[in-house]
Amino acid sequence: MPEIVTEKPVVGISACLYDCPVRYNGKRFDAVSSLGREHADFRFMPVCPECMAGFGVPREPIHLTGPGEEVLAGRARVMTRRGRDVTEELVAGAQACVDALSRAGVRVVVLKEESPSCGLFKTKVGNHRERDVRAAGVFGALLTRTGWFLFSDAAFNSPLSWWDWRRRMHAWLWLADRSIATNGELSDAWHVVKFIVQETKRREADEIGRAIAALPRHAAAEELEAIRARILDALRAPTTRERALAALWKSYTYHRKRGTLEGVDLHELTVRSPEVRRNATTLAQELIALERISFENALLFAASPVLYRERRRVRARDEALGRAQDGKER
Questions:
Q1: One domain, residues 134 and 265
Q2: Are residues 38 and 8 in the same domain?
Q3: DSSP code per residue over 28-81
Q4: How far is Cα 316 from Cα 290, in angstroms, rounded to an integer?
Q5: Which helix (H) or strand (E) holds 10?
Q6: The pLDDT of residue 251
Q7: Distances (CA, A) of 148 to 11, 35, 39
Q8: What is the number of structural domains in the chain?
Q9: Which of 105, 136, 264, 280 has the fewest Cβ atoms within 10 angstroms?
């Protein structure tokens, strides 16, 4: 059966993505409205490093003379449009945001891409001739040092993209919190999340499996933690539409072939084979439906091995399964 986490994740988020009018021109984005009811499955912690730097709203736009990591290393600067150096202020504001997120228990953060402060995978460098650089902004670079689970607002571009980031985030949090003191506990944890890693990083998954098998009988804590770190890092890699489709069909046909789904209420779900074209929304709906079925019927679909559910929903599921088992025994 899938692993269930019942502690609501606390997610840090660039404040401008959370409908807060904190951009330099006072604008904002409502990026999380697409989550609908699922919005209640998280607690959000909005932060803005530029506001914490004391820049205010509205303000002069800023730009970097080099990637965020270069700014933190002192080899690049943060400048306003009029040429004022505000490097120290922005670095201090970014650090203040990291400190606030730490106090709130945050280990997952979603950032505004292409921002000179919050950019994660891409940021703009230069003033009059800005160019996109595949690097983080100042706040994004500072967050990469924490080892937290980070993703950009591109995750909300489609239901399929969000489904993929969400499942890997839950798996990452579950593995990060799990007690691993023995070889067996590491192996058990790996067997839960390895399907996701195999889907996105097959070669790395094979190497991790071999590394676990090669451990001495009573491996030291440092060896176990080193492999856990490799798995956590691999869980950050996003999937593609084609890989998600293949994982969906593989899981579904596996349970059909074994007869695992006999007697299971499929909620009128019809999973179509990979050659049938469908849009990202339909595919995400099929995947989410399989998650619901796996939770309600104690099955493991490899696509989402770790799910978040409120405690009351877990209790209701367990009571229903208990009644069903009693009926079978009679």
A1: no
A2: yes
A3: --BGGGGGGGGGGG-EEEEE-HHHHTT--SS---EEESS-HHHHHTTSS-EEET
A4: 18
A5: strand 10-14
A6: 72
A7: 11, 22, 21
A8: 3
A9: 105
The pTM of this model reads: 0.88
227 lies in the same domain as 277: no
Packing angle between helix 183-200 and helix 202-213, nearest 10 degrees? 170
Last residue within a domain, chosen from 234, 268, 289: 234
Residue 239 lies in a domain: no
pLDDT value for 295:
77
Is the domain of 137 the same as that of 150?
yes
| Res 206: pLDDT | 97
Q: What is the pLDDT of residue 312?
A: 87
Task: Spell out, as residue ranges, where the chain has pLDDT lower than 70.
Answer: 1, 128-130, 254-270, 274, 297, 299-302, 321, 324-330
**Within this chain, do residues 126 and 92 fall inside the same structural domain, yes or no?**
yes
- How many angstroms separate the CA atoms of 63 and 86, rounded? 10
Helix or strand run (H / E) with residue 4? strand 3-5
Secondary structure (DSSP) of 123-152: EEE-STT-EEESS--HHHHHHHTTT-EEEE
Within-domain flag for 240: no
At residue 258, the pLDDT reads 60
Q: Does 93 share its domain with 144?
A: yes
Distance (Å, whole) CA 57 – CA 69: 26
Does a structural domain hold residue 12? yes
CA distance 321 to 25: 54
For the record, the structure tokens of 95 come out as 């650090």
What pLDDT, on the 0 to 100 scale, is given for residue 99? 98
Whether residue 187 is found in the same domain as residue 43: no
CA 263 vs CA 26, 164, 293, 321: distances in Å = 55, 28, 12, 13
| Domain that residue 219 falls in | 159-234
Which residues partner with 14 through β-bridges?
47
- Which residue is it, tokens 């980070």? 150
